[in-house]
Amino acid sequence: MAEISMADLELANRLKEAHGILASIAWATVMPLGAVLIRVIPSSKAWLIHGAVMGFGLALFTSAFGLGIRDILIYHSTVSRA
Question: What transmembrane ranges does the database entry give (predicted)?
Fold first, then answer.
């Protein structure tokens, strides 16, 4: 039977925290900001700022999604060794 590495479990916990923080920032701050900015910026180019902010939010959430997947893979590989 293989040993469960504490380093792997600590990494999984850090990834879980980073995943939650990034996803929360993306969905609770950046995405709503992008939705509001298109309405409050008095310019015909408001869509550019809106698109940039929403694109940043998408990139942030994609990073959070990737961290979540990586966390799951580390956790399951650690548990399956036990």
Answer: 21-41, 47-69
